[in-house]
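Entry 14. Ran structure prediction on the chain below.
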Amino acid sequence: MDDLREIRTLLAKPDPSPEVVARRRQEVRAGMRRSAPNRRARWLLVPVAAAAAAAAFVIVPAGSGEPGPVSKNGREVLLVAAVSAERTPEGSGTYWHITVTHEKYPVQEYWYRRDGSFWLKGKGLKGEGKLVKFPGEPQPFAVGPLRMTFDELRRLPDEENALYDRLRSAVTESDLRTSGGPATATEQDGFAVEALVSLISEAPVSPQVRAAAYRALASRPGVVDLGDADGGRRLRLPLAHPGADTVVVDPDTARVRNTRLWFPLTGGAAYVEDGGVTIDAEWTDHLPAE
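Output, structure tokens:
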């Protein structure tokens, strides 16, 4: 039985032992190690809007250069992360708190309430560093290029194939377009993968749905392991935005430690070709003082 099939067999069981999970993590880390390539950075102002209520403009650094030789066990990294996601308690609270950090930019924070109301705080956002409630009607949550209410997020299937099919159908029904016109079938696949990335990094879904999102990503063709990175393993994923197609996943914690693509609650998409942002998300009962 090959490694991937062995992991999938283990994941089918309700509660794999800590020893098994630890062994698989060690095997994932025993893969090819390499240093991250040095890259020159330049600054871009990048607007990306797809079926968004309000387009966001985010300044991000873009890089150049190609990665070195890579191994191809990225699916194993994602499957181990799925086990960790399932075992991570969800927590509780009134607000889903998202913190977006980048080493060269001020922190951006969002507090999302179940009714769709949300607050934001950070330089470059409305309010310029002060806590502000987003004006107008409550908004659905941004899941990649899609929008879903809190109730819709909580009703997502926790089986990987059903989850991907649900997102892929939603992409098709949304009639998403690119600069070249209506999205092709391949681009629609990429948009569905971007929605999966939102589920593992930003969205207030259950541990079971987050684990299903990791498994659905593992089943997609074109997942490539780019080697060790700060905080985990760098993976290339088949996204609709090919210039922003890498994430760093920590399989121990099931956290995305770095991503080149993310979707602000204010609408649109932000991507970073070099450097990326770290997204932390958790439940809290408190808004900060204004």
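The mean pLDDT is 79. Will compare against last week's run tomorrow.
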